[in-house]
Amino acid sequence: MAKSNKKFFGWLITIVILVVLFIATGPFYIVNEGNQVVITRFGSIVNTHTDAGLYIKIPFLDKVTTYPKLVLSLDGDEQRIPTKENQFIIVDTTSRWRISDPAKFYQSFQNLDNAYNKLSDIIDSSCRTVITQNKLSEIVRSSNIINEQKEENSGADDEETREINNLVNDATANETVTKGRGELCRLMTVEASKLVPEYGIDLIDIVPRQIKYSDELTESVYNRMIKDRNQVAQAYRSRGEGKKAEWLGKLESDKRTIASEAYRKSEEIKGNADAEAAAIYAAAYNKDPEFYKFWKSMESYKNNLKNYPATYSTSMDYFDYLYSADGNR
C-alpha cells in the first residue's frame, strides 16, 4: 500500500512538472484589440487570426507574427514632377492604408519596413502618372470659386464698380478647373490600388501634403504674379485717367456754362442800369436842360482835361463853360 502511494505521488509530480514545463514554453498567446497575427511553422503559414482573444500554438514550432489592424499612414518623399505644361513642381504626399489580408502581407513583405518601401514606390509612381497628365491649375486648385467670385463681382449693380471688375478680371483671367485637386487625389488612389491588393493591402487615400514650385518655376510664377498685379494696377489707373478726363471735361463745360450765364446776367444788369440811368438823366434834363448841359460839361472837363498837360486853344464851343456859367462868351 505504501509502495503504490509512493508510485502515485511520483506520477503526479511528473505530470505537474510536465504541465509546468508545457506552460513555461508558452503554448498560449494573446491577440490584442487592434492587432492581427500570422502563425507560421517551419516558414509556412498555418493559421491567421484577426479577432482579439486567447489562442494556442505548438511550442518551439509555431512562430507568431503580429501586425496592426488599424489604419496606418505613410509619408512619401518629395518628388520633382513635370505637369502637362512641362512645368516642374515639388510634390510631397501622405497616404492612409491598412493590412486587409495578413497572410498575403506576410508572404509579400514579412515586416512593415519592407511594406513601407514597396508602398512608397507604388504611391510615387501613381502620383507621377496622374500629375504629368494634368495642368498645374488642376493640381493646385480644388474648384472654380475664384472665377465664380469674379463673375459675381462683374455683375455688380454699380456700373463703375462693374467696369473696374471687368478690367481686373481681364487682367487676371484664370483657367477653368475641370477636375481639381480632390479628383486628382482620387485618381492617384485608384491608380495605386490596382497593384496593392495582391500584397494584402487596402489603400484608403493619397493626399498631397505639400506642393511647391521648383526653383526655376518659382521665379516664373513670381514674375507672372508681378505682371498680373501690374495689369490690375494699370486697369485702375486707366479707369482713373478716363474718369479724370471725363470730370475735367465736365468741369470745363460747367465753367463755360456758368461764365456764359454770369456774363448774360451781368450784361442784363448793366443794360437795366444803363436804361435806369438814362431815364434818370432824361428826367433831370427835362427838369433843367441848361443845368444838365452844364453838369455834363463839368464831368467831361474833369475826365478829359487831366490827360492833357497843355491846351493851346480854347476857341471851340466845347470850352464855353470855362468862361461863362451860361456857356456864352
Topology summary:
Elements: H1 2-24, E1 28-31, E2 35-41, E3 44-49, E4 53-56, E5 62-68, E6 72-75, E7 79-82, E8 88-99, H2 102-108, H3 112-131, H4 136-140, H5 145-154, H6 159-171, H7 181-193, E9 201-213, H8 215-287, H9 289-304
Antiparallel strand pairs: 1-4, 2-3, 2-5, 6-8, 7-8, 8-9
Helix pairs in contact: 3-7, 6-8, 8-9
Give structural notes.
With 329 residues, the protein is of the alpha+beta class. 55% of the residues lie in helices and 19% in strands. It contains nine helices and nine strands. Strands 6, 7, 8 and 9 form a four-stranded antiparallel sheet that branches. A three-stranded antiparallel sheet has the order 3-2-5, with helices on one face. Strand 2 and strand 3 form a beta hairpin. The termini are far apart. The model has no long low-confidence stretch (mean pLDDT 78).
Structure keywords:
rod-shaped; 55% helix; 329 residues; 9 helices
Provide a short characterization of the protein structure.
The protein has 329 residues and is an alpha+beta fold.
